[in-house]
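Proteins fold reproducibly. Take a tokenised chain:

. . .
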Amino acid sequence: MLLKELSAVASPLNDQQIDQLQQAAAESSPQQLAWISGYFWGLSQTQASTHLQSVSQPGVVAAAQPAGKLTIIYASQTGNAKGVAIALKEEATAAGIAVELVSAGDYKGKNFAKETHVIIIASTHGEGEAPDDAIDLHEFLQSKKAPKLPNLQYAVIGLGDSSYEFFCQTAKDFDGYLSKLGALPMLDRLDCDVDYDAPAAEWRVKALAKVKETLSAGDADVVQLPVTQPQQAVSQYSKQNPYAATLLTSQKITGRNSGKDVRHIEIDLEGSGLTYQAGDALGVWYENDPELALAIVAKVGLSGEELVEVDGESIQLVTALVSQYEITSANPQLVTKFAALSESKKLEKLVADKNKLREYSGNTQIIDVLAEKKTQLSAEQLISLLRRLTPRLYSISSSQEEVGEEVHLTVGVVEFEKGEESRQGGASSFLSRRLEEGGTVKVFVEENNNFKLPADDNTPVIMIGPGTGIAPFRAFVQERDNREAEGKNWLFFGDRTFTDDFLYQVEWQKYLKSGVVQQLDVAFSRDQVEKVYVQHRVLEHAEQVWQWLQEGAHVYVCGDMNHMAKDVHDVLLTVIEQQGKQSREQAEQYLNELRKSKRYQKDVY
């Protein structure tokens, strides 16, 4: 209606053009509308020169540009920051801004002195650590080599998860370092949570507006912009446009007496054109349990039939909870908001202690937070507590060289008892319990360039992956087997019991027998009185581990970030200290150098 009303006032568009715009707007998300706005603005700035340029050089538009350029630097561990950076570059180009996009790993810190406008998009890895590709740049900006930057204007956006202690720490670091060096922020840093799409899109619009305002208005450069061509019908699927795949297999691979339910999942990708490499992850969009959605609305005195607005569409509350919102895992923001609404003394006390708040949030599901104090909420209040649903990322446990147009996952079903009731994970229970074989699951491939096999097939590889952390190493070994790689392979695997929890036991024994895997060391914590874990096995073989490192071995760790990965890291330091006759500080430096050179890579969660 708004476009129709505007056309009646004073519009340069005819009715047909307005109808086309109105239809496009109705079918677009807020992020897409923001991008379209910037794109059309950019076209309006280049229109005057389009005709002249098309005569001399068809297919290219000459766009008058302010002097200088925008440099976008992304520090990405799993690909999210890179995705936001690519979107920003496309929007900048559409808005007529000269722009360069570069990975933090490829950017030389001394070049900051030559820049006028920089935007950094950074994710955070592990315990507030910079992503692997950004280590050198992160260290450079703290060093005495870093130049003063009085002529630099910058902006920073961080991606993270507020459930963790060091939320968006890398972005905070970059912001602080640049400010300390005298650079001027164009706008406040944005720290994004897991549902970052909408706030990131809004921030990008503001950031580019600031860039347009502040880029030097000196002699104009001429930048060649390709004329937009109609998009080809190419099979390209992404987080925003997932592929509707078919579930082929969901097979339990733990024994009947195991305390865990671990599933081997096989998904059909035939005809999708989707490809992946060993080390990548599969993004899975899932639907929540309808029974859980109904239990949540009942908990706050609602029926579920109430209407709520989601992305401009009016839908029933229970439908929104099933398909649009996170309704399993709690988070600190939800607990804080509900504490205020419910006036629960227990929750208010938790909110006052950040450490206890994170611990409670990480171990409590949303329905149990709502049960802390009976509180009547409106549908809008309930929705305001919740994050938007985001896909779960699972390490791929197959090599495409081995399985063709399939992708395999190793999924541990999250399940525990709360009183007399059962609690389950959203995505894991969807894949294992609610999705039947032959059913549809929306998926996409998430590249992970920071967890890859060495390019040289002669390089030895040490893999440490207890539990479902075994997933990428199954892919690694399949890949090396198919490539007939000569490099040695050593696997450390651990779980609770040999009888019920030795995941893919037959496969590993086959690889060991055939010589694809040279060494396999296992740790089953409950098969003896004293608990034995993978880090203990690493320490037992300290001399041999050090020998492999001296031979150039790459070390990979996959699994639990809070305990296992820390313990393995500490044991590796001990191995380097003892076998390399080094101090603790020297061992830490040695391990850090391995990480920089991509010889020590972690896929932890």
Q: What stands out?
A: The domain at 70-216 is CATH 3.40.50.360 (Rossmann fold).
